[in-house]
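Summary for the steering committee. The consortium agreed at its last meeting that each partner would contribute one worked example illustrating the joint modelling workflow. Our contribution is presented below. We chose a case with several input lines so that the handling of multiple components could be demonstrated. No manual editing was applied between input and output; the record is shown as generated.
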Amino acid sequence: MAQIFVIDDDPAHLDQLKNLLEKQGHVVHTALQGLAAIKKINKNDEIEIVISSLTLSQGNGNQVLNWLRLHRNHIKVILLSTEEEAQNFTHAEKSKADAFSPKPVTEESLKKAIDLSLEPIGFDSDISYHPDKFGRVDVLDFISQKEIEHPIYVKLSNDNFYLIAHPGDLFAPEEVKKLIEKGIHYIYLKEKDFDHYLDINTQLVKATVLNKKVNFQKKTKTTLHTAELLCEQIRMRGLNDQNFAEVKELFKIYLNNTINEIDAEFYTEMLYSFGRTPYSHCSFSAIIATLLTQVMGWSSEKNSINLILGAYFHDIGMIHYSDELFFKLPTQMTAEEMKEYFHHPIKGAQMLSQLKEVPKEVIDIVQQHHENIFGTGFPKQMKKSSLFPMTRVITAIDYFCEIVQQILFNRENKLEYVLDELQSQNPTYFDESTMLALRCLIKEKKVKNAKLKYEAQS
Ligand SMILES: [Fe+2]
Ligand SMILES: [Fe+2]
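What follows is the complete predicted structure of the assembly.
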């Protein structure tokens, strides 16, 4: 229950709001005009929330808001507006309100706005908050015009987040483009909102991959996207039994529902849809691992899943690295960074060992993915005879993904460049069968043809 002050210049609407709020157990005070409201609020120290129509005949909701922010900053403010009015409201103005509710109001929308306005984090324009409490999402996810379900933030500096959109706002494509022009490629959701966003994506990807009418590219794209969101959740929450199980299920469904479509075009969309983050590296490695199990004709689902999980988690020991550090070459690293980098396979294996259901094969892959047959790898300079064979497949995939990344960073490079790079390598350094399968995949462009070529040459 709260002491709420409602302002609306339409007496009938004001009555309706009063009744709705009293039904929810609140104590309600009212005024038809902004000025009258300000006078009454000035004399009443118990008001906790002000709900005001944005457009009033004398003064408007925004003027009340400005007065409240100057004189009663502790009072939460909910503005009621139509979609059209909301679009004319600038972000700076929006940031002063605690919540918005669309007009006409319903019992449910009003309750949601009140709950939101009372959230402890508030809507200060500049929030200093731990980054682990926010989940990062590519701003392009919001390119299709839709109503925002959760508050959206951008990150200004290391620990400062700025609210740019409230629930109910329309985040138009132009807004997204403006952010990108300003060099903002990611938006942030609060932890529990991010979890909800991930849940919705997880359900969506399952429905997409299980749908026989959806093509291979779309299935792959949605799987990649959800795999990246799972990486972000692992960064925020840490690796746990639940998110490990979700990764496993995601790729199991992908593996079992794309096999029949393996003659779809492989590279055009997929290679170029490879994202800009370390998460893309992990998720993309897992997709390539899935395709290679098909090209190389692996029949055991258990082995395929272990390989795919090894690919996805191979760099999990670097999950807390910044994007910049993740993509630095060892030669560009400081001594401290280098030390940590050389430790990432062990750290990753330790993270996975804490969980109940992780197969030993996956842990071995993660721990050994920088070892090689010449005994010059790290962290243990293992000998060829002690290397777990699947690790060799992942080492080649890891290398392949790095070359593809170079394409992404330098658009002049074409896929022929990838092929040249693959062919120029010392044939004995990487696993020969894996390199052959990768070359077939690039040359043939279709997984089905790549498989035939691989079978003929191996
Ligand atoms: Fe690595
Ligand atoms: Fe890697």
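The CA atoms of residues 84 and 233 lie 35 Å apart. The radius of gyration is 27 Å.
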